[in-house]
Amino acid sequence: MTETTPYDADRARFTRQALARLALCDHAAAVADGAAGLVATGNDPDTGPGGRVSQAFQLVELAERALVSAVTYERERGSSWAEIGQYLGIGPAEAEARFAADLEGWATAFDVPYRLDDTGRKRVPQLPTAAYDPVSACGRLDTWARNRLVLVDDKHPVSSGLVMATPET
């Protein structure tokens, strides 16, 4: 049985491709913010031994999430495993095997939007945050992009390019 979420009506306005793209945008912004934290040197004396390695490792983890989101988006927009594998330097079967569980989780999250946390009392959304609440994500990511992408002259640099669902008549 499909559970409902508070954002179902908002999410219905977006295609799965648009939701996947929003998740990719959100993860890419996290990577950019994580990388920015490694640029300034003024706080280096305040960082304990190995601290910058910790930040760089966290950046790699964020980049891995962005890669999974990119693959999900590419599959949602119709890219083949051969096309995806080509950019990863691996064969189509290996690419599919590497990301099969992530894509299965993505697909399942639309039917089973929550899982219970370890206590069994709190419901945790299964979709990435940006796909779960896309309207909020659009506003946040549009602002993020306007503030950081200097040469972009678009009031809605993220949301304006999304493929939206066709309204039901």
Structure characteristics:
2 strands; two-stranded antiparallel sheet; mainly alpha; 169 residues; 7 helices
Structure description:
With 169 residues, the protein is mainly alpha-helical. 57% of the residues lie in helices and 4% in strands. The protein is built from seven helices and two strands. It has a two-stranded antiparallel sheet with strand order 1-2. A hairpin with a 6-residue loop joins strand 1 (114-116) and strand 2 (123-125). Helix 2 packs antiparallel against helix 3, helix 2 (16-36) packs across helix 7 (134-148) and helix 4 (81-88) packs across helix 5. The protein is globular and about 55 Å long. The chain starts with 7 loop residues before the first helix and ends in a 21-residue tail after the last helix.
Poorly predicted sequence stretches spanning 5 or more consecutive residues: none
Number of DSSP helical runs: 7
In quaternary terms, these chains amount to single chain
Q: Which structural class should the secondary elements be placed in?
A: mainly alpha
Main beta sheet: 2 strands, antiparallel
The helix fraction, in percent, is 55-70%
Shape: globular
SSE ordering: HHHHHEEHH
Count of strand segments:
2
